[in-house]
Design a protein that fits this description.
This protein is of the alpha/beta class and 475 residues long. The chain contains 20 helices and twelve strands. The strands form three sheets. An eight-stranded mixed sheet has the order 5-11-12-10-9-6-7-8, sandwiched between helices. It has a two-stranded antiparallel sheet with strand order 1-2. Strands 3-4 form a two-stranded antiparallel sheet. Helix 15 packs across helix 20. The radius of gyration is 24 Å and the shape is globular.
Length: 475
């Protein structure tokens, strides 16, 4: 090894780091053995961290700073508009106006967070008494028993998507079978629910487009499609190729390579607009090109609270209370299909239907415990027969819980560590479905027709819940 080089061993590369050492240290700046507690997440871009002592200078030169400054100039940017509120009286957070007008020297603004981390959720569960834990398990099973009849299974691959399924695409687009099958089933369920119909001349169903003409707009317009958490945009790509759409908005806060944008822009008569913004900060009313246009909202694997943010974005209270919305110049939702994901990341502050949990006798702490349990659903080996047990709900959780919560149990941590994979998975799926059912109930309360379905088997993806809804005019 060359003298003066970092002595940190890189096992994947089977060699030492080639960077120069930092001063008298044996390691470079990247591998210098400092406590991780000295590093904090960058408040401008959470994808990287920075030493706490360097925060102030980093904020002046962070690569994300220029993008953030540009974003704040956009009319559709409104900090935290879809974020929701925490009902706790002791909730301490910066309000939207203050967050937009902060000054960098105020370190304390960045060092606090009202998010409940996974470690905090786990520790809260472990601090329960065995009777409290057993009671929570019983309550989860009881609640799930009341909602299970509302959860359907519909693995639906429509004929319209055969061009993708059979790899018959002319464009050079990525093909991963498990993703293509999920995308196709989302579209198939949309079609079954009356939001799409088998393409005739690559047109969306006339029942959706109709209300646009009835409110005085002119031209052969069809609803726009907004894909939330779009990533590379291949769900929209399949929708454009198989059903035909005219106007597309891709909402995504991250930058991606190998996007579908290039091939979408080459589609005749299709217009595309990518909005690089966090869903929490997106004010759809201020998107000029969406004015007066009905739209269909879609999303595949909207992680954690992103589902709740999307629902607030599409169905804000001021829109819901405006009974004359169709006669105004604003956009309006015609339907939605959201595949949920990563429930362990959900936060009470953002959750769309807190009243649902409270009415079930569940507290904020219960909610966070339930979100922590959901990670167990995706920990299991879903390539085995376990997925069949979970999908069909044939596993008696109550019997299993009694087995673990015996008198001799030393504590909840011991109980959790001794639980078998099937018991953990069953509990995880129950909790995921309870969380999503609360979201579905909220959508239904807004006057939309709804459906909750498992759109693919667990061995294709354990994240297989799809929320579908459509407005009354499409019934």
């Amino acid at each position: 090894m060359e003298e003066g080089r970092c002595k940190f061993w890189l096992p994947k590369k089977n060699r030492f780091c080639s960077n120069k050492r930092l001063g008298d240290s044996l390691f470079c700046g990247n591998h210098n053995l400092r406590s991780e507690e000295q590093r904090i997440t960058c408040p401008l871009d959470p994808s990287h961290s920075v030493l706490q002592e360097n925060l102030e200078s980093h904020l002046r030169r962070c690569p994300f700073l220029k993008q953030l400054q540009s974003l704040k100039q956009q009319p559709f940017y409104k900090k935290g508009i879809n974020g929701g509120r925490d009902d706790d009286v002791n909730d301490v957070k910066v309000n939207s106006k203050d967050a937009e007008n902060f000054t960098f020297p105020n370190k304390q603004l960045y060092e606090s967070s009202d998010d409940t981390t996974s470690n905090m959720k786990r520790n809260a569960v472990y601090n329960m008494t065995v009777p409290e834990f057993s009671q929570l398990m019983s309550k989860i099973e009881s609640i799930h028993g009341t909602i299970s009849s509302e959860i359907h299974e519909s693995y639906n691959i429509p004929e319209a998507c055969s061009i993708w399924i059979n790899k018959g695409m002319d464009r050079k687009v990525p093909f991963q079978e498990k993703h293509v099958l999920q995308q196709a089933s989302i579209l198939g369920n949309l079609a079954d629910f009356g939001l799409l119909e088998n393409p005739v001349g690559n047109m969306l169903c006339s029942n959706i487009a109709g209300p646009l003409h009835s409110n005085g707009s002119s031209g052969d317009k069809v609803p726009a499609v907004i894909e939330f958490g779009a990533g590379r945009g291949y769900l929209t790509q399949m929708l454009a190729d198989c059903y035909g759409i005219k106007k597309v908005f891709l909402v995504e806060r991250k930058a991606y390579k190998l996007k579908a944008d290039r091939s979408l822009r080459q589609t005749e008569s299709l217009t595309l607009e990518r909005l690089r913004i966090d869903i929490e900060d997106l004010n759809l009313d201020a998107v000029e090109s969406l004015r007066g246009v009905p739209y269909l909202a879609i999303g595949k694997h909207l992680c954690g609270p992103a589902t709740d943010l999307t629902l607030r974005c599409c169905l804000p209270e001021q829109i819901l209370e405006d009974k004359a919305i169709h006669s105004s110049g604003s956009h309006y939702l015609r339907g939605l299909a959201i595949a949920t994901c990563c429930h362990h990341l959900c936060q009470w502050k953002h959750y769309i239907n807190k009243r649902y949990f409270l009415d079930l006798g569940m507290s904020k702490d219960d909610f966070h415990a339930i979100t922590w349990f959901t990670s167990w659903a995706v920990d299991a080996d879903h390539g085995s027969d376990l997925s069949n047990v979970v999908d069909h709900g044939s596993h008696p959780l109550s019997i299993s819980v009694k087995k673990y919560c015996s008198v001799g149990a030393q504590g909840v941590e011991e109980i959790v560590k001794n639980m078998e994979a099937v018991d953990r998975a069953v509990l995880g799926f129950m909790c995921k479905e309870i969380i999503d059912m609360g979201r579905l109930m909220w959508i239904k309360e807004q006057g939309l027709a709804t459906k909750f379905t498992k759109y693919v088997p667990s061995n294709i993806s354990p994240e297989n819940h799809l929320l579908i809804a459509k407005c009354g005019d499409c019934l």
